[in-house]
Amino acid sequence: MKKIGIFYGSDTGNTEKISYIIYKKIGIDKSDIFDISNTSLKKIENFNILFFGISTWYYGELQCDWEDSLNMLNKINLNNKIIALFGCGDQEDYSEYFCDSIGIMFNILKKKNVHFVGEWPIINYNFESSKARKNKTHFFGLTIDEDNQPQLTKQRVNKWLKLVFTEINNLYKKL
């Protein structure tokens, strides 16, 4: 069994693209990747560390595959899982809802006994509001804007993964 499971939902391909960048950076020998549109979410239980890729649609809604999977997600045992959230959004055209899905997913999962890693700083973004915002300085996870800032994606992913793995290592020392 591999240690890290990457699960994503994607309509336009942006979240899929980011998921595969993460998958390759982590290493195909250390992780598995799943498109939730054709995967049973029960597979989540096979991993201790989970990366969830979630894009935001329309006026702050979850991507449809995640929306369709919420009932199953609520039934899955996530006890003591480590979860890193990342997602795509459009900070210019949907400035009032930028990456809301990350915040929606965070609020669903925080009710379970999970450990979140990978808060991301709110710098170099220009948006009106976001449910992904933890506080004035951080998002709950990595926010990507492939529509307006694709040139920053790889740099953001690299920095975020370093942060995530530092936090994971620190968690394992405590557990």
Structure overview:
This protein has a single domain (about 5-175), classed as Rossmann fold (3-Layer(aba) Sandwich), CATH 3.40.50. The protein is built from 4 helices and 10 strands; from the N terminus they run E-H-E-E-E-E-H-E-H-E-E-E-E-H. The protein has helices at about 15-25, 65-75, 100-110, 155-175; strands spanning about 5-10, 30-35, 50-55, 55, 60, 80-90, 115, 120, 140, 140-145. The strands form 3 sheets. Strands 1, 2, 3, 6, 7 and 10 form a 6-stranded parallel β-sheet that branches. Helix 3 (about 100-110) links the parallel strand 6 and strand 7. Helix 1 (about 15-25) crosses helix 4. The longest helix has 22 residues, at about 155-175. InterPro entries: Flavodoxin, Flavodoxin/NO_synth, Flavodoxin_lc, Flavoprotein-like_sf. GO terms for molecular function: electron transfer activity; FMN binding.
Entry summary:
The chain is an alpha/beta fold. The chain has helices at residues 14-26, 64-75, 100-109, 153-174; strands spanning 4-8, 31-35, 49-53, 56-57, 61-62, 82-88, 115-117, 120-121, 138-139, 142-144. It has one domain (4-174): Flavodoxin domain (Rossmann fold).
Quickly list its features.
6-stranded parallel sheet; alpha/beta; 10 strands; two-stranded antiparallel ribbon; Rossmann fold; 175 residues
What is the count of β-strands?
A: 10
What proportion of the residues is helical, as a percent range?
Answer: 25-40%
SS element count, helices: 4
Q: Please compute the radius of gyration using only Cα atoms.
A: 15 Å
**Sequence stretches where pLDDT stays below 50 over 5 or more residues:** none
Q: From N to C, what is the helix and strand string?
A: EHEEEEHEHEEEEH
